[in-house]
Design goal:
Strand order of the largest sheet: 1-2
Strand content: 5-15%
Largest sheet: 2 strands, antiparallel
Structural class: mainly alpha
Radius of gyration: 20 Å
Number of helices: 15
């Protein structure tokens, strides 16, 4: 089983390979081949994720793979590097496992769609970017996945762009996410500069940031770390549809139902929760930021559930329910119960995806 550590990159690259094949050659393929390529690449990623999970259980130490130096300027180096620890293992199993089932469901759901191959290419592309986000060893690579899932959500929500409201919903999701991402970027750069100026070490590696904060956190000061934590959380409010940036998610129901299940229940909207859990060491050192996370999460849970009462469209009811459940996840990570927040993330991915996929039958 130890071989999987050297092939972690395959988990990420398989969905991208499926996306490239279907995007460039899908129009020449019969539909059965397009669907087979899309489903098999994600299933392959799931099988490799299971192998990584089993190896993690066996050896208890994270799996790390450094592929190559991506950016190298002076004494600063950012690598394309992937890491699989317990948190990552849960996320890759959810993303590839639920993702595969939704791909499979889509084969029948989109059978009459004229842009069949393009739909599956976008779905594969989304899965690939989401896997980059959760497996990235450094914040810069995580940001690539972060922006990539935002792009794919725009492509998938506005997939039936012939209807004006669908195109507008896609643009709304894209723009609201950019607002959140701007906050994330400023927070990330402030953290980078604060650590660099205090310790003289310029790094974006999550593990190195954790070690440096444990050494130099007092010198940086809880106030600055609190601001960084809140700014990173602004990015999470965009991705994970928290007050005030939740407005895009109910409109995003304009996309095909499997897209709603994949993006708005199982994967993309949980990226913010994952990010807070991944940066738990920062939030533990900044109680003010944790308080903001918990309070916004609690407010969102109450407000979204209340709005959901007044909806008539079943997908809108499920959308507001999703926003509310994400609020509960943020309450969990905001009070320091990171394991509980991630546990709810995993259970929610399954039951809410099932509710979305079953909504048409209802």
């Amino acid at each position: 089983m130890a071989w999987i550590e050297n092939y972690l990159w395959l988990i990420v690259i398989l969905p991208f390979a499926g996306a490239a094949l279907n995007l460039f050659f899908g129009r020449y393929f019969p539909r059965a081949l397009t669907a087979t390529i899309a489903c098999l690449t994600v299933f392959g990623a799931f099988c490799l994720s299971v192998a990584a999970f089993l190896l993690l259980r066996e050896q208890k130490t994270p799996l790390v793979l450094n592929l190559y130096d991506w950016i190298s300027v002076g004494n600063f180096t950012a690598e394309v590097a992937f890491k699989a620890d317990q948190l990552t293992a849960i996320m890759i199993l959810v993303v590839s496992g639920v993702g595969f089932l939704i791909h499979l469901y889509s084969v029948g759901y989109m059978a009459e769609e004229k842009r069949f191959s393009r739909y599956f290419a976008y779905l594969n592309l989304f899965t690939g970017f989401m896997l980059i986000l959760v497996m990235a060893k450094n914040l810069l690579l995580m940001f690539v996945g972060w922006e990539g899932v935002g792009l794919c959500s725009y492509l998938l929500i506005g997939f039936w762009f012939e209807k004006r409201e669908n195109a507008v919903a896609g643009m709304k999701a894209f723009i609201v996410n950019r607002v959140g991402d701007f906050g994330f970027m400023i927070g990330f750069l402030m953290l980078f500069l604060a650590i660099g100026n205090t310790s003289g070490v310029w790094t974006v590696d999550v593990d190195e940031i954790k070690d440096l904060l444990e050494l130099k956190g007092a010198a940086i000061g809880g106030g600055l770390l609190g601001i960084v934590g809140i700014l990173l959380f602004v990015g999470a409010t965009g991705k994970s549809a928290q007050i005030p940036l939740y407005v895009w998610l109910p409109d995003a129901m304009a996309g095909p139902t499997p897209v709603s299940a994949l993006i708005h229940a199982a994967t993309m909207v949980t990226a913010g929760v994952y990010m807070v859990a991944r940066m738990n060491f920062l939030y533990v050192m900044a109680p003010s930021a944790m308080a903001v996370v918990a309070v916004i999460g609690a407010l969102t849970a109450i407000v979204a559930a209340t709005i959901g009462f007044a909806q008539n469209d079943i997908k809108k009811v499920l959308a507001y329910s999703t926003v509310s459940q994400l609020g509960f996840m943020f309450v969990g990570v905001g009070v320091g119960a990171f394991a509980a927040g991630i546990f709810h993330l995993m259970t929610h991915a399954f039951f809410k995806a099932c509710l979305f996929l079953g909504s048409g039958s209802v």
